[in-house]
Amino acid sequence: MLALIALIGLNLRPFLTASGPILSSIEADTGMGYDGLAMLTLLPILLMGAGAFFAPSIQTAVGTRRGVLAALLVLMLGSLLKLAVSGGLSLIMTAALCGAGVAFIQAVLPGIIKERFPANVSAVTGLYSAMIMGGGALGARITPILMGSEDDWRSALAWLALPAGIALVAAFRILSNAKVARPDRSLTSALLRRPRTWALMAAFGLVNGGYSSMVAWLAPYYQSQGWGIATSGNLVAVMAVFQAVSALTIPVLARRSIDRRPWLCTTLLMQAIGFSGLAFFPAASPAFWAGVCGAGLGGSFSLSIVAALDHLPRPEQAGTLTALMQGGGFLIAALAPLATALLHDWSGSFVSGWIMHLGCIAVTFPLYMRLDPARYADVMGLPTFDKRIALPNLSAKAADCSGIRN
């Protein structure tokens, strides 16, 4: 099961990062402008957000196993169909198909993690997040290699169907005996009435907007300064590798503390350093700026999921809250690449976009500071929520107190 979670995570970002290093070839072949190219990131992330709101209901209706298998099939087809795209619109539609498949998967996997690994939520979430970011690095690095010529970008992108197909076969076998509690249909509406749910959405969205802009525009930013396709793709891969390392290590380092805020704020500081360097000193140390920013983004992503799971004791409750956080968050994050493109058209440079993300970091800081674990029970206030088992890493006590109600 642990291997399956890692394999599935590996497939959730390559379709986003793979196109960044080869955007110039796609633009030359399709005639798409910056606004159209931004849709390759915006639309799938928008669907990843909107789809997360429906994922708990779909999970209730069809079950976890069938839902994950169908989502992996959709993700595989979205990549495979890139072989047949005829222009910009059809390419955007295949990206949207991938986003729809990923939406369900990443909405239900955190709940599966809490159900199957209750004593190691932080570590397994870190592994899952690291594989997501590692997959992003793989997509950015391997696509320029697979593209034999300038007009061969379709087949290079279509190769991403292979690892998705492997994950589908593995899930077909391994998920057959997985027993994950289905969420209550009324739970979503109850959670949406909680201000904390909306605060988690906002923080998750503002941070992941930085990731969206980086995968969409980091390579074109340096290509505009004379870098080649392969070297700028390597820069995106560096960012994603540091994301993966941070997503794995920071939750492990933070697992002994029930208060995630010091680590979350550390990730914001790393992002601020990275975006400042990209904006004001881009030629000084591009790999360092990309790496430190990636480390901040990766650590923030995984710790945000852990913090959301910490809020509620039951896996189906915590999984639904995490799905909602990702749903609203990705709706916000989807706007970042378009906003960066519009700022580029207005200012003539991507620098204005990096400065915009510095502002997003400033807004996220007070939202992170509100995540006091001592108040999780009060801010959630669900009828079945037992304050004595609210704190993370107390799964054994949760089992002992399962019959207690407020």
Write up what this structure looks like:
- This protein is an all-alpha fold and 406 residues long.
- It contains 19 helices and no strands.
- Helix 4 runs antiparallel to helix 16 and helix 7 runs antiparallel to helix 14.
- The chain is globular and about 55 Å long.
- The two termini are 34 Å apart.
Strand coverage percent: under 5%
Q: Main beta sheet, described?
A: none
Unreliable segments of 5+ consecutive residues: 384-406
Distance between the first and last residues' Cα: 34 Å
H-E order: HHHHHHHHHHHHHHHHHHH
Identify the overall geometry.
globular
How many strand segments? 0
Radius of gyration: 20 Å
Overall average pLDDT: 83
In DSSP terms, counting alpha (H) and pi (I) runs of 4 or more, how many helices?
Answer: 19
Structural class: mainly alpha
Helix content: over 70%
Could you give the topology of this structure?
Layout lengths: L1 H9 L3 H4 L5 H8 L3 H29 L1 H17 L7 H29 L4 H26 L6 H6 L2 H14 L10 H8 L2 H29 L5 H26 L6 H20 L5 H25 L4 H19 L1 H13 L3 H19 L6 H5 L14 H6 L6
Quickly list its features:
mainly alpha; 406 residues
At a glance:
This protein has 406 residues and is an all-alpha fold.
